[in-house]
Amino acid sequence: MAKVTQLIHNYLRHSKRFPHVFCPGCGHGIVLGSLIRSVHSLGLAKDDVVLVAGIGCSGRIPVYVDFNSVHTTHGRALTFATGIKMANPRLTVIVIMGDGDALSIGGNHLIHAARRNIGLAALVLNNHIYGMTGGQSSCTTPLGSYSTTTPFGQLEEEFDISRVAKVCGSSFVARTTVMQARHMDKMISTAITHPGFGMVEIISPCHTQFGRKNRFKTSVDMYRWLQKKSVSLDKFQELPPEKRKDAVVTGIFEQKDCIGLEEKHARMRRELRGET
Ligand SMILES: Cc1ncc(C[n+]2csc(CCOP(=O)(O)OP(=O)(O)O)c2C)c(N)n1
To answer: What CATH number has the domain spanning 22-272?
Structure first.
């Protein structure tokens, strides 16, 4: 345990950055730990990793970790990341977004990053709410649930983030939860090494802004609920229809060979120069 703690500390920016902003019971810190373990297990040098984030609670993650980091505008993290990857494909570029960041204001960018299959690892931390700004509903707030802006229940159908990424062409798509740290480590590492666009949707509870309004007395209740509702894709397919309702399906939804856009560009440039 001490060894693991030391490992995590080697990657944190200690000066002036702590205490962090996450509420007690927030899942985002678990994602940060998983991200560090994944980068470490892949043997990547800190200087070769770029973390790009938008605005939101999830957007704070790059502030705490000693990689190259870019804290961009709300919803636009993927555009900055695209520029970085195209300019220097050697870098490992990891993008961290909230559900609002990635699918509400930033939905257009997600669609096109997936379509282009640019070599980015995109982590979407889905807490089903706009956490940082006071718990307004996002496009992933489940039907019927309560938020600051849906005090009588959400009337809109929610986006299935993984499904959106898959239909838009992303060549690696997975869903995991903060209750499955080892699975999360594996999904993040796979997205990082996958050529082309790799998106991991991570269910990360927000008790402060979502749970309290939706009858979860404590954050522990919320985590227990998540554990109970999580089911792997294989098991889900065996479930009868009535048991499928409300399931949080985890696993890999898409994994196919791909040449990343940045690599296609490099090949085209070599060809135009007559180098091939
Ligand atoms: C252009 C713009 N619009 C709106 C905002 C206000 N704003 C900041 S964070 C945020 C939502 C954050 O929610 P999400 O992306 O889901 O991340 P979370 O905080 O839940 O991790 C909003 C609406 C902003 N900063 N910039």
So the answer is: 3.40.50.970
Q: What is the pLDDT of residues 25-69, one digit of tens each?
A: 999 999 999 999 999 999 999 999 999 999 999 999 999 999 999
What are the tens digits of pLDDT across the range 66-88? 999 999 999 999 999 999 999 99
Quote the CA–CA distance of 272 and 260 in Å, as a whole number: 19
Q: Where are the alpha helices (DSSP H) in the chain?
A: 2-11, 28-41, 61-64, 77-87, 99, 107-116, 161-167, 181-193, 219-229, 233-238, 241-244, 261-272
- Mean of the per-residue pLDDT values of the chain: 96
- Determine the distance separating the centroid of ligand 1 and the alpha carbon of 4, expressed in angstroms: 32
Distance 130 CA to ligand 1 centre (A): 6
State which ligand 1 atom lies nearest to the alpha carbon of 55: 9
For residues 99-126, average pLDDT? 98
